């Protein structure tokens, strides 16, 4: 775990036992995902390089009704790039009908994002003024994962269905998920994240369950007005399709989740299989002693054979 962003990370350079050259590259999964939470809407967009497949999407959600619109692309030869550095480097997806540009610019304490499509456009500045959760964690068989996650204020605007949503940095937030990993062939993760302004200030959350087996190595944390605090391991309960929930062993997080909708990505191609469910909606409960209600966020359940 690190107390500041790392200036240069690229696991392409890492030694991977038993996987030289191109096999090592195909095992590496990299992405940059952004969730933008506006008081009345939400916007999610991502560029993903899964080695054997490139993909990305942008999805708009109206919070009052759950109505959504998505533009997505997926291909082994899609033009996708993932930034090596957060100081002055870019991630992108470029295709007919969808363009995503993410300029990571921590030398100026910000990230700039652009989304262009027929249905969704965005021009946003994400202000990096909080302590990020930065980890490099061990995976089985000598492999590892790197993650940089943080809840930040965002300004700018996005347009969907002919309506413009202006982001005020005091009341709109971006959750950054920047990730690289040499996952084992059989892998999984469960994830919960949220961002909300409460009477006690801005509250953010990141909880995961994944193949990391060392309990001392994890990426479970809450943010209070930009200050990071680690929490104990979460327990995810997906047994009730209508009401997922998550709580931590130390009792600092206890939440139920009311889904507005779901993004699903099922891939079955020969020996490769991936079942990905990302639900979006509202959390209710407590985070670090703060009562939250209608806090917009995401929960994911993912299993794969890569």
Question: Explain this structure to me?
Answer:
With 306 residues, the protein is mostly beta strands. It has one domain (11-305). It contains 1 helix and 22 strands. The strands form 2 sheets. Strands 1, 2, 3, 4, 5, 6, 7, 8, 9, 10, 11, 12 and 13 form a 13-stranded antiparallel β-sheet that branches. A 9-stranded antiparallel β-sheet has the order 17-16-15-14-22-21-20-19-18, with no helix packed on it.
Q: Report the helical percentage.
A: under 10%
The structural domain count equals 1
Count of helices?
1
In total, the number of strands is 22
Q: Please identify the oligomeric state.
A: single chain
**What is the residue-averaged pLDDT?**
93
The amount of beta strand, in percent, is: over 45%
H and E order: HEEEEEEEEEEEEEEEEEEEEEE
Which residues sit in consecutive blocks of at least 5 with pLDDT less than 50? none
Terminal-residue CA separation: 27 Å
- Structural class label: mainly beta
| Gyration radius from CA atoms, angstroms | 18 Å
Question: What kind of sheet is the major sheet?
Answer: 13 strands, antiparallel
The 3D shape can be described as globular
Write the topology of this structure.
Blueprint: H1 21-27, E1 28-37, E2 41-49, E3 54-62, E4 68-75, E5 79-81, E6 89-95, E7 98-105, E8 110-117, E9 120-127, E10 133-139, E11 143-160, E12 163-167, E13 173-182, E14 186-198, E15 201-209, E16 221-224, E17 227-230, E18 234-237, E19 244-248, E20 253-269, E21 272-287, E22 290-305
Antiparallel strand pairs: 1-2, 1-13, 2-3, 3-4, 5-6, 6-7, 7-8, 8-9, 9-11, 10-11, 11-12, 11-13, 14-15, 14-22, 15-16, 16-17, 18-19, 19-20, 20-21, 21-22
């Amino acid at each position: 775990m690190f107390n500041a962003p790392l200036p240069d990370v690229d696991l392409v350079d890492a030694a991977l036992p038993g996987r030289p050259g191109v096999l090592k590259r195909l095992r590496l999964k990299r992405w940059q995902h952004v969730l933008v939470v506006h008081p009345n809407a939400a916007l999610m967009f991502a560029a993903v390089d899964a080695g054997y497949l490139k993909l990305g999407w942008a999805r708009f959600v109206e919070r009052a009704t759950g109505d959504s619109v998505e533009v997505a692309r997926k291909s082994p030869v899609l033009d996708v790039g993932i930034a090596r550095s957060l100081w002055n480097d870019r991630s992108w997806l470029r295709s007919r009908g969808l363009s995503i540009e993410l300029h990571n610019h921590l030398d100026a304490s910000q990230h700039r994002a652009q989304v262009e499509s027929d249905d969704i456009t965005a021009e946003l500045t994400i202000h990096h003024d909080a302590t990020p959760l930065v980890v490099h964690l061990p995976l089985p068989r000598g492999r590892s994962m790197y993650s940089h996650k943080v809840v930040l204020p965002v300004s700018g605007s996005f347009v969907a269905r002919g309506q413009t949503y202006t982001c005020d940095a005091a009341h709109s937030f971006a959750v950054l998920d920047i990730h690289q990993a040499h996952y084992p062939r059989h892998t999984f993760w469960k994830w919960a994240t949220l961002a909300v302004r409460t009477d006690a200030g801005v509250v953010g959350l990141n909880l995961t369950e994944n193949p990391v087996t060392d309990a001392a190595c994890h990426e479970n944390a809450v943010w209070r007005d930009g200050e990071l605090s680690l929490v104990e391991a979460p327990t995810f309960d997906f047994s009730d399709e209508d009401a997922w929930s998550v709580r931590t062993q130390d009792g600092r997080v206890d939440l139920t989740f009311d889904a507005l909708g779901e993004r699903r990505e099922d891939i079955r191609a020969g020996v490769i299989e991936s079942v990905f469910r990302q639900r979006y909606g509202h959390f209710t409960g407590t985070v670090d002693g703060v009562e939250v209600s209608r806090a917009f966020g995401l929960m994911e359940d993912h299993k794969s054979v890569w």
